[in-house]
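Troubleshooting: if your tokenizer reports a length mismatch, compare against these two reference records.
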Amino acid sequence: MATLEDIPVNYARMPKGVRDRLQPAAAAPRGADALQPGVVHAGDARRLLPRIAAASIGLSFWSPPYFVGKSYESHLTFSDWQDLLRTVIALHAPILRPGGFLAVNIADILCFRDPTMPRVQAHSLTRRRSPVTRADVLRAMADHPEMNRYALARVLECSEQTIDRRLNGNNIRGGKYETQTRVKIVGGLLEQWALAAGLYPYDRRIWVKDPAWENSKWHTLSYRAVDEFEYVYIFWKPGVTAVDRSRLTAREWKEWGSRAVWTIPSVRANDDHEAKFPVELPRRAIRLLTAPGDIVLDCFLGSGTTAVAAIRESRQFIGIEKEARYVRLARRRIAAAAPGLKTGGPTKSEI
């Protein structure tokens, strides 16, 4: 069976603009300075990605911070978050091999705070937290014309907000004094940053998981849906891509290989990491988009799930993680998946 290595690539015959973008860099990191496969490297992806050998990664699969307030991302402003993802995506252009892929698992930001959003009432016709009606408030006002709404609230045994809502129809999602929230579509941002880096949208899959009610906390005062899916956006580096249907069984091709929607149960217990995804998610991408022996990168390695999936599918891996507690967790999980594999103690990449 022919492999990509058997296909000659004559860069000199390519248009100059294409040739300059695809030809492997002559100054690729080599020897001790290059990040080695089979190791969890501790540090910031923005500092370590330039140390990966050029055109060496068959697939980069990762799930970055979602900007939803997790402890490991709570220090980021929205501008910081955008700069992080934009920079990391740009740094993939030289390290992906031509024809290789970048796959990003991410979700839209469902409660994105927007101070410019109009504070318009949400009037619920089917659910009232207080039995106090507008008629009750008007009757109390007639009986106690000297009272303000705080005093009326004590008489009616409700909140002053209830008085205001019954009189003026004010029922703001999140409360009168909170910044309103809306959905922030993340896919368009990724597309913009990938195109700027010379990577092209190739595909997207929808991962249907278990419902996450926390992200839809205002659903009783809106028509917003409960969050129960995420995306895997797949970007392609121009080059020869081997399409090998023998990587999957006929059943796998039918059930998920050629299907846009993947139904995979969420991780049941996030007791050692706040945001784990199931091994099956990267496993499918790895089986679909790489061949045995290829290098799979995860530069937001977290608990090590992508590396575990790569090992199970006979691929190599490079892991990058900046949180020390997750570096230790990933190394333990990888050691359990591949006894005898040295996943890295303190290395030159520790920062």
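Reference record two:
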Amino acid sequence: MVKLYKNFDISKKHKESIILIGNFDGVHLGHQKLFRLAQSYKKIYKLSIGVINFDPMPKMFFNKSLKNFRISSIDQKINLLNKLGVDFIITKKFDKPFSKTKSIDFIKVILSKKLKARFLFVSNNFRFGNKREGDVNLLIKNEKNYNYKVVKPKPLIINNKVVSSSLIRKLLENGFLEKANKLLNKTWTIESIVQKGRQVGKKIGFPTCNLDIKDYILAKPGVYAVRVLKKNSSKYIKGIANLGYRPTFNQKKILLEVHLFNFSGNLYNMYLSVEFLKFIRKEKKFKSVNQLRSQIKTDLKIAKKIK
């Protein structure tokens, strides 16, 4: 099981390791290729694999208006990295004092003195230190001084595009869910707790679970075919979800509402994983509740046919 750290004071057995630095948001095919390469180094050099990532993500820290950005939550990321054979993860709180760390101090104090890193896996555009002053060239320049080796893996290119978290966010925002799922190598999933809603779905004959999407990326508002897992269960329940603002009811807050097929029971305060299988249609404002009800019936027929 992967060992979790909140700072750079790690145990002796995890020092002198292979260190990968990045957000690894979504742990997509490009990241998976990177971790396979790290595994080959682990085999040759008999070293542990460690990940340094930050919370909040630096981009979200510097841009406070960036509320919905993550492809995966921290818990999801930890589970995915664990499956890729990572031995330890350092999730450092990204705050003002830490953001002022000089790039040379990050190398000297953190990477060398505290972690004693042997190999550093970083992308070509990796920046670090106060005002992003440090880059890959600075890391390479200091290899001999601090006894580590920089590894710059080639990015994964599919259909002439570099597979990146940014590309996947764009695909989700534009409704290209299946393309995003292919690059993630899994179905995009929101995990959250069921909250009490306004009972609108129940009133119109389609009871729903309401989930707060927290800081997940807002995929294209609309209707999706989904499947749902309750915590500690391995049995999927198929359903349909509306992600968005419910314009027919003048809702201002982004909400994920899920209607489950062939299910009855109370799900309040339950932790659910909602897997997005297919984008059915974009969100629209209906003139009447009857019109909405009729559209939902059509959406249900489509969603039920999706495997």
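Descriptive notes for reference record two:
- Residues 3-156 form a domain with the Rossmann fold fold (CATH 3.40.50.620).
- The first strand starts at residue 3 and ends at 5.
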